[in-house]
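Long-time lurker. I teach an intro course on protein structure, and each term I like to show students one example going from raw sequence to a predicted 3D structure in token notation. This year I'd like something fresh instead of my usual example. Would anyone be willing to generate the tokens for the chain below so I can use it in lecture? Attribution to the forum is fine with me.
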Amino acid sequence: MPRVYSYALGREIDLPDPEIVPEDRYFLGLSLGAPAEYTALVIVRRRPIDDQWNKHTVRGIRRWPPSTLYAVIAADVSALTAVAPLRNSVLVVDRSSVGVGVFDAIKRAGPVASLRSIWLTTGMGATQDGLNWRISRRDLVSVVDQAFTHRRIDVPLNLGPDAELMRLEIPNFLTEKLKAGDAHTIDWRVLHNEDLVRALSVAVWCGEQRGGTFRFSGGSDE
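-- Reply from a regular --
Happy to contribute to a lecture. Here you go:
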């Protein structure tokens, strides 16, 4: 199993077991928290079930405690994407709790991945400006809710305690966000472990788009 050095943990960590088939693609959801909040990275393997549906399996979770420097997070994420099977994956950064400058720091670290940022909004639909996307929270939650309801999201328990926390938080997250879908304000981090579910959600949302790319009005995916 490949190993890389984690600057946040001060030790080497294992990468997910590749288990790659030609149709597999990896999506890394990174939910950046404010300085007083957790930041989470969820590694999702998308594997086609048939011509229409995909199975999303969580293959790894990384979590950084409050007050971790964004430069440390950026270095860790960049190191993860430098090794197969995560090399040339899709890195989707939820920057709704931070500014564009933090996303720029992630970009400067040089991850070996197709990089996108997501800003969650009220309203409906999605718009694109270069690498940056504005996506309505209703669209995000609806896509994840459908995949979860039809058992197309798998969170193996052998990934450790963070996986169990995420499994328990997913139904709460979906219930709260769908219930608040028409509100005019966004309070995204109301759940204690919401960083984990948000990271999973942006990875699954991206993986559910056709071909794993962003195809909406407002520009190309490059």
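Some talking points for your students: The chain has one domain: 3-212. Residues 181-187, 211-222 have pLDDT under 50 and may be disordered.
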